[in-house]
Specification:
This protein is α+β, with helices and mostly antiparallel strands. It has 15 helices and 37 strands. Helix 6 packs parallel to helix 7.
């Protein structure tokens, strides 16, 4: 997907691409490196350069990124005497070794700017200033060491440190956040740079979908350049997917769409993508003036500021008009330079200071509504046919593990994150059953998920709420104990290791320390099992047997069955085959009906799934007002629905013939509802102000088949919820239908001469709003054929055949 994503970024007006380097993936074991396939970052940078773009290398090697363990390999945690991200000799040695490896590879490949390569900046550490306080003096000396270590590599391009107000010279400190117009670097000679402009947000299991409007994102960018910014990077421009077990957290979802201009599947997210295209073009048209002159600032009243960039030598100039008022629009008279309408919470860019070439609140780009359509592969049955296998657990349910300890161990330290799963098993001898006939099993865990078995029977499962620090919980369940030996088997599952915060690496996972107790409800006697002999097993037997790999040879004790497909049965593996959907549109698998687990296509992990985890019913917004300082809870959607229902299956994972999907279902689900679909445009909406041009377009050969709404005057609402305002033209619908129906794209000049008299009052700023259906030509033909009348006397058949001929 890299070349296509990079091409779309370039077409979007991007000229530089940042990437992290993920230490945990590149060095999964000490001094065993992997730079193959998707981990070939050298190839990635060369692909960027081949597209004619620059690059920024963010080594870190701590990256945060909502990535598992912040990008650190978990083996670091177990090194004797180590402390991460502080002035610690063991850690600094490992960090320097990895940084040296990455730098030397870039130098050998001639990737740095002075070598003719694309890399113009490199970053060391990442947002350390946000968390360094608790590290004290050791944190300050660590920052100084990072700077000195990086400078010693002499790579020929500047080093940057984001969110590091005390970055030692000559490091350039940069800003991350939703807004950075007030940021100033700690050295007046340093450029004002913004390394992360958050285009939206990530999703937590149990959370809603965060959205940041195109208007507000554009506003933040324009305001940053108005106040002297020279580099702004979107985080994310393409969000993508946390394949495998790479999502961090805990409880960060598999999707990393981030409400980015290029969505999870690599499709332009409109109107955000297109609105930014126009902004980038406007900024680049005046970039020489912006970077060669010092601006002057003037207040023109009621939170509206005029900034003028003037080149005294050439007389060239550009102005920015920013209205930071949250609720009040402004009409600004610049006298000989004209009058301008500047909506609340917006910035206008004026070429020559007398012509508006862009306003952040005036969105003219169509909004696309994406839909999922059924798999149209040839010979694909209506429903998938499944085989299944129970997870082999006879060893763990009988308490047999790989090693023993007289305490409850910390999970990541024990597993080295080789699996999400760790079995804790112990035996309890009961002589007097009368005291324990009514007992509770008490387990205190730092999670993130717990499944408890007693004498081979599942007695219950529990997990945290998904909110911050709520992955710690106490499990209490009634148990029936038998005379003699009782086996308690506890399966602890992580859902992404913590990736952020001071000393985040010390945050425990699993049932470490417990306590684990049996509490008699008859005589209030407690039996603490925390210091019992515990037996441990890392991972699942199905993982060890590679059940996710369709080509593996199974041992005789494990067989895929076609009989009696189990529904809602925990700890079950499911397998099916499917044909790749026709065409080139992105592919998703709908896992609605499943509980929690992991999924693989042709042996490639497409990530964790958890559609049973629903977002709260409250907190979403029917409408989204872009005005005012943005926070993640401003414009939430998807309340009451699964946090994630659809899971991306890249076409590069698919074969032309038979493909295999394997699911490991941890909690119990219904695979009969699983289906493959493709992502496509279902509808398109557009708004435009009078004096501009309305554009509508469908992609992938689709046509505008039905105009669902059209109003010229003061229409209200947004896409899919438009409504008529207080005034409108009576002829706008017929004009739009004539100009657009049956075409892949159309454009209309917005004026009363084109659309008809709106009858609006003089103080109303007129605009048009249109919503249309995008339809595949094949579907359009089928619809018409189905509606054909065989009554030749009515002449309808001839008319419809004539229409088909003209249209298609």
């Amino acid at each position: 997907m890299w070349p296509d994503l990079i091409r779309k970024a370039k077409e979007g007006g991007i000229d530089t691409i940042e990437t992290y380097v993920f230490w945990d993936h590149h060095e999964p074991r000490p001094r065993e490196y992997d730079f193959s396939g998707n981990l070939d970052f050298i190839r990635f940078f060369k692909t960027v350069q081949e597209a004619g773009l620059y690059a920024i290398l963010r080594i870190g090697p701590y990256v945060c990124a909502e990535w598992n363990y912040g990008g650190f390999p978990v083996w670091l945690h177990n090194m004797p005497g180590i402390q991460l991200r502080t002035d610690n000799a063991v850690y600094k040695s490992e960090m320097e070794t990895f940084v040296a490896k990455i730098v030397s590879m870039c130098q050998e490949a001639k990737l740095f700017g002075p070598q003719g390569g694309p890399i113009i900046f490199a970053q060391i550490e990442n947002e350390y200033g946000n968390v360094m306080g608790p590290y004290g003096e050791a944190g300050k000396s660590y920052v100084k060491w990072c700077a000195e270590m990086a400078q010693n590599f002499s790579i020929g391009v500047p080093w940057i440190m984001c969110q590091q107000a005390d970055a030692p010279q000559p490091m350039i400190n940069t800003c991350n956040g939703f807004y950075c117009h007030n940021f100033q670097p700690n050295n007046p000679k340093s450029p004002k740079m913004w390394t992360e402009n958050w285009s939206g947000g990530f999703k937590n299991w149990g959370g809603q979908d965060p959205h940041r409007t195109a208007e507000d994102l554009a506003y933040s960018v324009a305001l940053f350049f108005q106040t002297g910014g020279v580099l702004m990077n979107y985080y994310m421009y393409h969000g993508g997917t946390n394949f495998g077990r790479s999502s961090g957290g805990p409880y960060i979802a598999t999707t990393y769409d981030y409400d980015a201009p290029l969505d999870e599947y690599g499709l332009p997210s409109q109107p955000k993508y297109g609105h930014l295209v126009q902004l980038h073009a406007a900024l680049k048209s005046v970039q020489k003036i912006l970077t060669s002159t010092k601006p002057t600032h003037q207040s023109v009243g009621n939170q509206v500021n005029l900034t003028t960039f003037l080149n005294n030598a050439t007389g060239e100039k550009v102005c920015f008009l920013s209205n930071t008022n949250v609720g009040q629009d402004a009409n600004i008279d610049l006298e000989q330079n004209g009058k301008y309408f500047v909506p609340a919470w917006s910035v206008s860019i004026l070429a020559g200071c007398n012509k508006e070439i862009y306003n952040t609140a005036k969105v003219n780009t169509p909004t696309t509504v994406m839909v999922k359509v059924p798999n149209r592969a040839e010979k694909e049955p209506a429903h998938l046919s499944w085989t299944w296998a129970a997870e082999p657990m006879s060893d763990t349910l009988h308490g047999h593990g790989q090693f023993n300890a007289m305490k409850l161990l910390e999970q990541k330290e024990t597993t080295l994150d080789a699996s999400d799963y760790l079995w804790y098993m112990t035996r309890v001898d009961i002589d007097d059953t009368s005291s324990w006939t009514n007992a509770n099993l008490f387990v205190n865990t730092t999670g993130h998920v717990l499944h408890a078995y007693v004498n081979g029977e599942l007695i219950g499962s529990q997990w945290g709420t998904g909110t911050e620090d709520a992955y710690n919980f106490t499990f209490i369940k009634n148990v029936t104990l038998q005379r003699g030996t009782n086996v308690i088997s506890l399966l602890s599952a992580t859902v992404g290791l913590q990736n952020y915060g001071s000393f985040f690496d010390l945050s425990p996972a699993g049932i470490v320390g417990g306590p684990v107790k049996l509490i008699s409800n008859k005589n209030d006697v407690t039996m603490d099992l925390s210091t019992n002999q515990w037996s441990y097993k890392v991972g699942l037997n199905g993982e060890a047997e590679k059940l996710m790999d369709a080509g593996c040879q199974l041992r005789q004790s494990i067989k895929w069955s076609t009989d009696g497909l189990p529904i809602s049965k925990p700890m079950t593996w499911y397998k099916t085959t499917f044909q790749a959907p026709l065409g080139t549109e992105p592919v998703v698998v709908d896992l609605q009906g499943m509980g929690k687990g992991q999924a693989w296509v042709n042996g490639q992990s497409i990530g964790r799934y958890w559609p049973a985890f629903l977002a709260p019913k409250d907190g979403c917004n029917a409408t989204c007002d872009y005005r005012g300082v943005y926070s993640w809870d401003n414009c939430m959607t998807n309340c009451g629905n699964p946090t994630q229902r659809w899971y991306h299956v890249p076409r590069s994972f698919l074969r032309n013939d038979k493909n295999t999907l394997v699911l490991f279902e941890e909690m119990g689900g219904n695979p009969t509802q699983v289906a493959f679909k493709t992502v496509t445009i279902g509808a398109v909406c557009s708004t435009a102000y009078e004096g501009s041009t309305l554009e509508l377009s469908c992609q992938g050969g689709k046509t505008l088949s039905n105009i669902q709404f059209a109003s010229f005057g003061d229409p209200k609402g947004t896409c899919q919820s438009f409504s008529k305002g207080s005034c409108e033209s009576a002829t706008v619908m017929s004009v739009v239908q004539k100009a657009c129906t049956g075409k892949e794209k159309c454009s209309i000049n917005i004026s009363e001469g084109t659309l008809g008299t709106s009858n609006c009052a003089n103080d109303i700023t007129r605009r048009v709003a249109v919503q249309a259906v995008c339809e595949d030509k094949t579907d359009s033909i089928l619809k018409i054929l189905r509606s054909l009348s065989l009554d030749f006397s009515s002449n309808q058949l001839l008319k419809k055949i004539s229409y088909l001929w003209r249209t298609f």
